[in-house]
Write the C-alpha cells for this entry.
Amino acid sequence: MADELEKRWNKSYATSAMKYENDKKVLNSLQNKKMAEKSRRKAEQMHVPYSELVFCALMCSRIYSAISGYITDCDETYNFWEPTHFLVYRSGFQTWEYNPRYALRSYCYIALHALPAKLLDLLFQHKVFVFYLVRMLLGLFSAIAEDQFYSALYRKYGGFISRVWLLITLFAPGMYIASTAYLPSSFAMYGVTIAYAAWLDGSDAAAVFWIAVASLLGWPFVAVIGLPIVFDLLVRKNKFYNFMEYFFIALIFIMTPILLADLAFYRKLVIAPLNILLYNVVNPHGSELYGTEPLSYYIYNGLLNYNIAFLMALVSLPVYLIYRNVSKGFTDIGYLLSAMYIWLAIMFIAPHKEERFLFPIYPFIALGAALVLYIIWRTTAAVFGYFYKHMEKTAIVSITGLLGMYVAFGLMRIAALEVYYQSPMHLFRDVYNIPEPSPVICLGKDWHRFPSSFFVPHSATVRFIKSSFRGQLPQRYYPDSNGTYLINTRQNDRNMEEDNVYVNIKSCEYLVDLDLGSETALEPRYNTKSGWTSVKSYPFLNSAKSKTIARALYIPGYSRKHTKFGMLHLLKRTKLIKEQELQRARQKKIQEEEELHRKKAEQEKLHGADEL
C-alpha cells in the first residue's frame, strides 16, 4: 500500500514538474515575444524614413552655398580667414582682437580650420581651391547638424513638422549664408542645433556638452540659448548633480585645448571667451563703437532671410500656448521656442546689431514656422472638419500654397545675392592670376569687400590707401613664426584710425575700386583718371539707385528694369602696362633676331656641305 502511494506521489510530482517547466517555457516565450515587439516598436520609432535622401539634399544645398556664395561680412575676412591664412602661409592681416594686449579671440578656433587648410594646401597647392574646400567642410558640418536635428524632430513630433522644417531650411536665404560662413556665430549654430537634437532624443549629457562647445569654442553669448535645457534638468527633472557633472566634464574637456592653444600662440595664459564677454558687456566702449541700428533692423533682416516664415516664427510661442491649452501635445517644443525668444529679446535690446548675430537661432525660426503651419492644419481639421469634410484638404492646399510662396521668395532672394553681389569673388579670382612676380595690390574704399589673402598670389602684397573711412583697419602680422605673440603698439580697442596702415597710391601697381558714378576728394573715380587702366571689371549693384523690391528679390523681367549697376574694377597702372608692352616688344625682337641668326647659321652650314 505504501509503495503504491509512493509511486502515485512520484508520478504526480513528475507531472507537476513537467507542467511547471512547460508553463515556464510558455511564459518565457511570451516575454521574449513582448520584448521583441517592444524592441521592434522602438526601432520603428528610432528609424527615420529616407534619412539618406534628407542628408544628400542638405549636403547638396550646402555645397552649392560654399561654391556660389560670397563673404557677406568683412569680420569673416579679417577676423577668421586672415589669421587662418597666416597660420598656413605666414602672411595676412591681424585685427586688434588678436593683439596679445587684448586677446579677445582664441587661436584654438582658428587652428581647427587651419589644420585641414594646411593639409589641403599640401594636396592641391592652390590657395583659391583651399578656400572653397574649407567652405565645403563647413557646409558638411552644417549638413550633419541639420540632419541630426531633422531626425530628432521626426522621432519626437512626427513627419509633418520635421518635413516642413526641412523644406524651410533648404530654401532659406539665411541658411544659404550662415551654413558656410566662417564665423563663430555659424559654428555656434552647428553646436546649438546638435545640442537640441540630443536633448530631444533624451541625451542630456550630450546636450550640455554641445552647448558648451558652441559657447566656449564658438561664441560665448550663445550660452543663454541653452537656458531652457538647464531649466529642464534642474527644475523639471531635478538633476542638479547630473547637470553639474555634465557641466564640469564639458568645461575641462573643452577649455583644456583652448588654454593650451592660446598659451602656445599668445605665449601667455589667456581666457579668450571671458575676454570677449568682458569687452562687450562690462567695457564702457564696447561693440557700440562699430555702429548701432534701430529695432526694425532685425525685422527687415528676418524678412529677407526667411520671408513669411519669419513672421510665423515670431508668433509661434503664443500660438503654441493657446493650442496646448486645447490639445495636450508637443509638451517639449515650448523649450525650443523659448530659446529663440530669449535670444531675440537680447539681440533686439542690444544697440549694436548685425545679420550674423541671428545665425544661432536660424533652425528655431524654421521650427517655429513649421509648428504654426501644423497648428493651422490641425485646428482647421478639428473645428471645421466635423461640418465640412473637405475643409481639411482645403487647409492642406492652403499650407502647400504658403510653402510654395516661401520657396519662391527664398529662391528669388538667393538669386539676388548671387546676381547683385558676387563680383568681388569673381574679380579676386582674377587677382590670383596676376602674372607679375611681386605685385602691390591696393584697396581703398572697398577694403571691406576683400574676400581674404587666399585670393592673392603668394608673392603679392595687399595695402590700404586713404579713403573716407575713419575707423581702425587691420595691420599686417609680423612676417615670422612669432607673429601671433608680438604686440603691435599701433593697434587700439576703441576703433580709432591708425595712419600707419596707409601707403601712398604711387606705390600701388594694382587697385581694386568700385565705380558707382560719384566721387569725392578722397574717393575719386580712379578708372576715369589718367595713369590707370581697367584690366577686369564686373557689375555690382548700386543700391541707392535701385528700387527696394527689385534689389531685395531677383524677379525675372522686373529687377533688370528697376536696378542700376556700377562696375567693380581691377585697375592696373598704365605706366606698368606700357613698360610690359615695351618689354614684350623687346623680347619679341630678341626672339626674331635669334630666329634669324639660327636660320642664317643653318643656311651657311648647308652651303658649306654643298661645297664639300
Q: What stands out?
A: Residues 107 and 262 are 6 Å apart (CA to CA). The chain has a mean pLDDT of 89. DSSP finds 20 helices and seven strands in the chain. Strands lie at 93-94, 440-443, 461-464, 475-476, 510-515, 532-541, 565-573.
